Amino acid sequence: MTEPGIVGIVEDDESVRRSLCLLIESLGVVVRSYATGQQFLADPQCGDCDCLVLDVRMPGLSGLEVQVRLKERGIRLPTIFMSGYGDVPMAVQAMRNGALDFLQKPVNDQALLDKVQQAIELGRKRRDQAAQRAEVAALLSSLTSREREIMRPLVAGKMNKKIAAQLGISIRTVEEHRANILRKMGVRSIAELLLLLISSSREPDPTP
User: Quick one: 5 exposed, middle or buried, by C-beta within 10 A (0-12, 13-18, 19+)?
Assistant: First the structure.
């Protein structure tokens, strides 16, 4: 069974924050709310959120500053900005920094719920991708320097004979290293290895 998503809400207006919590909880997700950007960033579990609903204009840190602080920490949360002002430059900056959307207040309830669901799905895909990337990195670290040297031309499509001539080793040695590379990486062919490397480095598509 899929665990419920976690949605962070950062909104300084208490009544708006409560309304957002009630609305988004209707999706069956866990909601964590914060009155300021500082409170959110101070939470050691802030990076666990699948989605962040973030007000732009707040006392202390603005929503855009919170976005930048998260980016500096290496935390990439699918973020939905909300603003009561038609500030096009702010919207452009938020989107350039990776925001999923920039909604104008008063926010349409269904539009927000649809975006939150999209963000949760994207957040999960990113976490799965990060886990796969870490797993592939661990497998690659098990290869010797010579195996990594041979793997590069292998995945580039070069034949054993050409690799052997390029590195000044025998074809038999290349074949032995090739077999070890496939075994350590848990694949049966170079095609599977290439697919594994590509899939672990590909970013999830933010579109539904």
Answer: buried
